[in-house]
Amino acid sequence: QVQLVESGGGLVQPGGSLKLSCAASGFILDYYTIGWFRQAPGKEREGVSCSQSDSITYYADSVKGRFTISRDNANNMMYLQMNSLKPENTGIYYCHGNGKWGQGTQVTVSS
Predict the structure, then answer these.
(1) CA pair distance 100, 45, nearest whole angstrom
(2) pLDDT at 56 exceeding the cut of 90
(3) C-alpha dist (Å) from residue 105 to 28, 46, 55, 67, 111
(4) Helix (H, G, I), strand (E, B) or coil at 36
């Protein structure tokens, strides 16, 4: 069964950090472009970062220099390291790969 499961969300103060994880099963993550998306309250889902390979990555302008996407092919995992978090980074974060979405993990940045 093809499945993606996110973890690592939570409540963090502005300026803090979180690392999101996404475990893939039923397919080999290394074969696919992977991505992280965010859906803020009342807004449409938007792209945050994607990775075609370890050397080909994309970041939304709003997160460049603060977020880092990575993958662990040996363990079929993908990650999103988020530093210097801002309140506008709040939302449900979803991982995507092989045409599948995870269930999402809530990130709240608030003091």
Answers:
(1) 14
(2) no
(3) 22, 15, 26, 16, 19
(4) strand
CA angle 81, 107, 111 (to 5 degrees): 105
Name the maximum alpha-carbon separation found in the chain. 40
The number of C-alpha atoms within 13 Å of 26 and in the hemisphere containing its C-beta is 9
* CB 35 within 8 Å of CB 57: no
Q: What is the pLDDT of residues 4-44, one digit of tens each?
A: 999 999 999 999 999 999 999 999 998 999 999 999 999 99
Burial of 96 (0-12, 13-18, 19+ CB in 10 A): buried
Other Cβ atoms closer than 10 A to 56: 9
pLDDT > 90: what percent of the chain?
Answer: 91
Q: Are 37 and 20 in contact (CB under 8 A)?
A: no
Instruction: Identify the pLDDT of residue 78.
Output: 95
